[in-house]
């Protein structure tokens, strides 16, 4: 805390002499203290999220006003942290603040030099990229129409043993993933503070947790649900769809990186496929130039305003310097699983009592950008969400391991994970239920806005896929297991049926 106060003193004197200009002085606060009712109101209302998949190294980020920081007891209740002054243009037009941290790959499987200075890799790579794509050069790594790279640098704001905080100029935002070693992932901070909830501070309002806990408590095997998931989810169809998305089947797709024509092609194809099952899909552009989210909606048969959301991200990330990004596991498997769920809804004649959304996000690999925009939109519309589940990487398990389903160790609503774990034991008893530190997928955006959310993952423990964030991430390879994708799809579909309620239409 001593350094915190020393910095405060510096800030205080700087602000006394500085005349506020267009480049206002902002200060980031990175702390190990989570928001709670104990914190000063002005800190709680400047909360920008919690980052990191391992509970022990999580970071909580605040962007308090100068006035807040200079107040009497602004920092009471914090057990420690760092203050980072930002005396440059931090507006949305200029760029975004991006947290970069561990994806959850087994540290022992990383080459020994990978703990080297990641910042020096990023800064030198981004300079090199700026050179490559300077005007007159036709050597562009990505096929973006407008990838003029500004002279603004990527800035390092803060570094901890497990993470970096960067300011990424807008022109670099579409390609920030391409600068990172495969075991690191970005999460963009929101451009506005996250909502401070009533009753002190609770990440997810308790009535949603209570509802899910009660559903879990009374959960019983339903022969009808078992029939719908067993007959509805089809391995061959999921395999065909995944291979179309990866380009292993002749689709012409080379990459689904958010700035490629392949991603746009995939978005339109997904829309058509899901609409054929009775949904309405919209292409939702969240940032100019990124391929859109595909948001597919099944209406409520009872005019309910409550929603249940299942999601995956269809964008992908390849190896450094390669234009190929098939994303067969990450997240072709989650996307294929979602198409399998849609197919089952269609063939089994499912009519949901509540509103159901199947969401296919883009911009995940650049920092959960698509899902964040969608969750923010749902928050602004006061949407009631009973459960949100993200499926990201479902197919790979290490040689000799059983079929499994991994639930998040942190950044989830525990009651949502308990429900999924119990549904798994009932409808896919072949899966071993466990926990994973795999970090930073789209359900995090929903947790940020106080929605009851969790994730399903392919493995208990670390990420083990050797082709993670690699251009070799195809479905035709050892230990890519469509049986596991099918088993997990049965669980998530059982979750939709259980929470949304349903009728089955005859004669389909
Ligand atoms: C809990 O679930 C049971 C069974 O669905 C239901 O009868 C009961 O009303 C629920 N209780 C609460 C408090 O929601
Ligand atoms: C889809 O939206 C159109 C136009 O709003 C509407 O006419 C149609 O009924 C909707 N279909 C479904 C399945 O919700
Ligand atoms: C749903 O709303 C429509 C239009 O407001 C109405 O015609 C219909 O009867 C309602 N259905 C139910 C089940 O309440
Ligand atoms: C959402 O709820 C808040 C607080 O209850 C209210 O002030 C706001 O007007 C609502 N917004 C919409 C779009 O209904
Ligand atoms: C089932 O739910 C209970 C809470 O009701 C939880 O303690 C348990 O861990 C869950 N089981 C699994 C396999 O997730
Ligand atoms: Zn992913």
Molecular structure report:
- This protein is of the alpha+beta class.
- The protein folds into two domains: 27-188, no CATH class; 206-504, Zn peptidases (Aminopeptidase, 3-Layer(aba) Sandwich).
- Helices cover 31% and strands 20% of the residues.
- It contains 13 helices and 18 strands.
- The chain has helices at residues 2-17, 41-44, 66-70, 118-132, 206-217, 223-232, 235-246, 261-275, 332-347, 369-380, 414-427, 443-448, 482-500; strands at 26-31, 47-51, 59-62, 81-86, 95-102, 155-159, 163-169, 184-188, 280-284, 293-298, 306-313, 350-352, 355-361, 384-391, 404-408, 432-436, 453-456, 502-504.
- A six-stranded mixed sheet has the order 9-10-13-11-14-17, sandwiched between helices. A four-stranded antiparallel sheet has the order 2-3-1-4, with helices on one face.
- Helix 6 (223-232) crosses helix 13 (482-500) and helix 7 packs across helix 9 (332-347).
- 50% of the residues are buried.
- Residues 1-23 and 134-147 have low confidence and may be disordered.
- The site of one 2-acetamido-2-deoxy-beta-D-glucopyranose has 2 residues, from loops.
């Amino acid at each position: 805390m001593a350094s915190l106060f020393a910095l405060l003193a510096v800030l205080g004197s700087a602000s006394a002499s500085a005349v506020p200009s267009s480049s206002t002085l902002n200060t980031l606060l990175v702390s190990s203290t989570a928001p709670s009712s104990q914190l000063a109101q002005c800190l709680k209302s400047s909360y920008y999220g919690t980052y990191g998949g391992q509970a022990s190294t999580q970071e909580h980020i605040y962007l308090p006003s100068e006035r807040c920081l200079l107040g009497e007891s602004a920092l009471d209740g914090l057990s420690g942290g760092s203050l980072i002054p930002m005396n440059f243009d931090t507006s949305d037009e200029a760029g975004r603040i991006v947290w970069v941290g561990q994806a959850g790959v087994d540290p022992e499987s990383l080459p020994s030099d990978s703990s080297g200075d990641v910042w020096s890799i990023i800064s030198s790579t981004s300079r090199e990229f700026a050179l490559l794509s300077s005007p007159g050069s036709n050597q562009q790594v990505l096929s973006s129409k407008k990838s003029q790279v500004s002279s603004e640098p990527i800035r390092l704001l803060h570094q901890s043993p497990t993470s970096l905080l960067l300011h990424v100029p807008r022109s670099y935002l579409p390609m920030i993933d391409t600068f990172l070693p495969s075991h690191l992932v970005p999460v963009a901070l929101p451009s506005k503070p996250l909502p401070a909830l009533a009753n002190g501070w609770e990440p997810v309002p308790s009535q949603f947790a209570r509802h899910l806990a009660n559903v879990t408590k009374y959960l019983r095997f339903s022969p009808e649900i078992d029939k719908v998931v067993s007959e509805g989810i089809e391995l061959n169809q999921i395999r065909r769809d995944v291979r179309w998305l990866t380009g292993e089947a002749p689709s012409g797709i080379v990459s689904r990186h958010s700035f490629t024509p392949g991603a746009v092609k995939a978005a339109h194809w997904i829309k058509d496929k899901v609409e054929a099952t009775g949904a309405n899909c919209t292409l939702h552009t969240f940032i100019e130039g990124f391929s859109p989210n595909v948001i597919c909606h099944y209406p409520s048969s009872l005019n309910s305003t409550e929603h249940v959301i299942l999601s995956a991200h269809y964008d992908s990330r390849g190896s450094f310097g390669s234009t190929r990004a098939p994303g067969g596991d990450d997240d072709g498997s989650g996307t294929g699983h979602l198409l399998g769920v849609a197919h089952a809804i269609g063939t089994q004649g499912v009519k949901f009592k509540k509103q159901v959304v199947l969401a296919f996000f883009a911009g995940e690999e650049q920092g959960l950008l698509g899902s964040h925009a969608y969750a923010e939109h749902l928050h602004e519309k006061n949407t009631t969400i009973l459960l949100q589940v993200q499926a990201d990487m479902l197919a790979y398990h290490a040689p000799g391991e059983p079929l499994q389903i991994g639930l998040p160790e942190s950044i989830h609503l525990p009651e949502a994970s308990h429900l999924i774990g119990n549904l798994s034991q009932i409808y896919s008893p072949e899966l071993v239920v466990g926990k994973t530190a795999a970090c930073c997928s789209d359900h995090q955006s929903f947790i940020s806005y106080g929605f009851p959310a969790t994730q399903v993952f392919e493995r208990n423990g670390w990420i083990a896929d050797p082709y993670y964030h690699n251009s070799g991430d195809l479905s035709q390879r050892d230990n890519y297991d469509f049986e596991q994708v099918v088993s997990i799809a049965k669980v998530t579909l059982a979750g939709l049926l259980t929470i949304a309620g349903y009728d089955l239409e005859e004669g389909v």
